[in-house]
Amino acid sequence: MIYNININKKYIAKVVDPARLTYDQVKKSVAISHKLYREKPDWYIVNNFVQYFKTHKDARFVGELLSKDVISLVGGSFHLAPAEYKPVILTEHHTKKMTLERVGLLSPNIQSSELNYCDLTTLHNLFYDLPRQHNAFTIKGLLEVLSRHDIPNYDELKLQIIATYVIDWFTHQLDRNSCNLLFEYDDLSFDDAPNVRLARLIDNESSFAVSSNGVIDSEYQRLWIPAIPYSRLEFKDHPEKFDGLDYNISELILDYPEEVGAVINILCVTDFNPALEKYAPSYNAGISVGDDCISFLKSFIDEKKEEASKIKSLQF
User: Fold this and answer.
1) Nearest alpha carbon to residue 288 among 297, 301, 279, 296
2) % the chain with pLDDT above 90
3) What pairing do the DSSP bridges indicate for beta strands 49-55 and 43-46?
4) Three-state secondary structure along 73-125?
5) Measured between alpha carbons, how far is 93 from 113 in angstroms, rounded to an integer?
6) b vs e for 195-213, b when ≥16 Cβ sit within 10 Å of the residue's Cβ?
7) What percent of the chain is predicted at pLDDT more than 70?
8) In 3-state terms, what secondary structure has residue 196?
9) Cα–Cα distance between 287 and 16 in angstroms, integer?
């Protein structure tokens, strides 16, 4: 079954002619390359904050917002937080005759001026023995490299990475790649290892069975094939299950039973229905889905909780 979303512009906030920022203006407060800015140039000043606008007009709206809700509900125990997203209609008057109106998500800049930022592809600047290539990462390899360095808050960072991976599995997030897994760290001194943490989590729209063409598809691939595998780089090309269960999370819990078990425990006891029901049909809902889609999303979460309980039983 294919599910689409409903957009009622009457009940979505309007942002008219915000100040668009150039690359030189953006880079004063955002660690962003010129290449990435060219790909994602929609940075503005809105309500006196630097904010990024992401155009959406399909079910990726729901994937992003629901994932934000899940991370908000369970992430606090693991020092995780999502970027904040707000549906808006952004209007720009380019000329008297040309007006551009876009529906999407507005998000305040997640970066603090007091910290430094990098993504997984550039983390080798802090830890020389990490890969340089975008597609050369595994979570197992990342954790093993980090464990060899004298990171003051290694236990916290390890738990953040594991919790993010388990939450991504739970929401069936398919696009947590090495370019959108962001790290923040304090200024470095010559002798000290950096105090590194995960930054706020971004780019969660490829989740909750949202397909590449922007619909929620109940026939989604049940086996989770993440952008970053746990241990085998070739997993995407040769996916498999472990004793009938998800391969990546099963391997992860065998290596880190205490950490994975803690995340699963919270996921299994959390009531996500209020978050889902925010998108039920309503006369004043800006973004909504049909009742049948709400039922599917509830069953999606129930299936994940059931598999999580089975995976947890693999501990020994």
Assistant:
1) 279
2) 86
3) antiparallel
4) HHHHHHCCCECCCEEEEEEEECCCCCEEEEEEEEEECCCCCCCEEEEHHHHHH
5) 31
6) bbbbbbbbbbbbbbbbbee
7) 98
8) strand
9) 20
DSSP structural state of residue 20: E
Q: What is the mean pLDDT of residues 240-245?
A: 89
| Torsion angle (degrees, nearest 10) of CA 200, 79, 70, 115 | -10
3-state secondary structure of 268: helix
CA–CA separation, 127 and 194 (whole Å): 9
Sequence letter at residue 204: N
Q: Which ranges constitute the DSSP H helices of 114-246?
A: 139-147, 154-171
**Token pair for residue 5?**
């979303």
Q: How high is the mean pLDDT of the chain? A: 94
Distances (CA, A) of 297 to 161, 215, 268, 313: 26, 13, 15, 25
pLDDT tens digits for 61-78? 999 999 999 999 999 999
- What 8-state DSSP symbol labels residue 5? -
pLDDT band at 134 (very low <50, low <70, confident <90, very high): confident
Amino acid 186 reads D
CA neighbor of 281 nearest in space, from 1, 3, 2: 3
pLDDT in tens, 172-229: 999 999 999 999 998 765 566 788 999 999 999 999 999 989 999 999 999 999 999 9
Contact criterion met (CB below 8 Å) for 83 and 201: yes
Judged by DSSP in three states, 303 sits in helix
Model confidence pTM above 0.70:
yes
**Residues 12-48: tens digit of each pLDDT:** 999 999 999 999 999 999 999 899 999 999 999 999 9
Q: How many CA atoms lie within 13 A of 231 on its CB side?
A: 11
The DSSP call for residue 22 is: P
Q: How many CB atoms lie within 10 A of CB 53?
A: 21
